[in-house]
TrEMBL record:
One of its GO terms (biological process) is peptidoglycan biosynthetic process. Peptidoglycan polymerase that is essential for cell division. InterPro entries: FtsW/RodA (IPR001182). This is Probable peptidoglycan glycosyltransferase FtsW. It comes from Tessaracoccus flavescens.
Amino acid sequence: MASEATSPARSTGVWSQLKALAASPMAPFYFVVASVLILVSLGVMMVLSASSVFALATQEDPYYFAIRQVAFLVAGFVFALILMRIPPDALRKLGWPVWMLAVALLIMVLTPLGVTIYGNTNWLAIGPFQFQPSEFAKLALIVWCGAIFHVKRGRLHEPLQLAVPLLPLGGLILALVLAGRDLGTGLIIGLIIVLIMWFIGTPMRVLIPLGAAAAGLVALLVYGSGSRMGRIAV
């Protein structure tokens, strides 16, 4: 009887702790960290599952690509810790410079320096180094949006202040990524733009038509690509 009496009390206590955690100012931070850890774990398992046979045949080590993935994750974790130490004012000053750098790198991808892999031109080769400017563009877009909306923070109730310069200049980054036929990264950048608009309080009457137009564009891009239609058919 004692255990039966304490069980509801214990569950009530756990529920109260969860409610208190959700109401704390650090709740969004914990939510993001937990989401990242879950996604990272799933990603490593998927890489291992998808590449182990190929890695064993080509590298004689089934864990070769999974270990590389973990190494990049560790480097990204260190970079994230460094970013956390940078004051917000310093990050906001980087807003426009990183946006301009992202645009310049994405334009360079469309030049002979760009490398096409599996039909997508989204790699940039400079000497012996190859990297994806679109990955940098994701981070640059978030930092840039934080900078511009900090300046506009008292005027975000005005539709024009919400849309400009986010839609034209954020749309430029999206257009440059799509010009390289990288639909997957384009979808992520489009989602970043929509989520930022939602976070700053854009009304649903604006977001719903915008989302519908984006869905139509995605359908058009998929329909116009034989390889993407082939993936859907499979």
